[in-house]
Specification:
mainly alpha; 2 domains; two-stranded antiparallel ribbon; 7% strand
Length: 143
């Protein structure tokens, strides 16, 4: 995350430096131009800067950082129908996966309980023997 921020900061700094050098060259060359040409150039610069600000606002109007995550918001573009459906699909898949896991775990648990019950009922000892406090002693002394 930090290297991405560092790279974007470096790229922005290099772009700014290039812009300042080009502006300095243009300003130096515009001193020898007639007044009407220099006024047209100034008006073009003002329009270009305004257009640049407008286009940068349209690409990403806000970057919000929360914890270790960043999210972009793109202004007033509301989500269309397909975008809403596409954003709901992962949630639906997650819910279906959780329900499937729950059902499989319940079936496995029921199967294990059924095996224990079957083993108790088919054993030589009656089920009441397992509840007898002396049964634990009998098992310990038998080993």
């Amino acid at each position: 995350m930090t290297t991405t921020n560092t790279l974007s900061n470096t790229a922005a700094r290099l772009q700014d430096q290039f812009g300042h050098r080009v502006a300095a060259r243009l300003a130096a060359g515009s001193a020898a131009l007639p007044h009407d040409v220099s006024e047209r150039l100034r008006a073009a610069r003002v329009r270009a800067v305004a257009q640049r600000k407008l286009s940068s606002l349209q690409t990403a109007s806000a970057v919000s950082m929360s914890g270790g995550q960043a999210s972009l918001s793109f202004g007033d573009e509301g989500l269309g129908l397909w975008n809403r459906i596409a954003s709901a699909v992962p949630l639906i898949v997650l819910a279906a996966g959780l329900i499937t896991i729950h059902v499989v775990q319940n079936e496995r648990r029921a199967s294990e309980v059924a095996e224990v019950d079957a083993a108790l009922l088919t054993d030589d000892l009656p089920p009441a023997a397992y509840a007898d406090p002396g049964f634990v002693q009998f098992l310990k002394s038998g080993q």
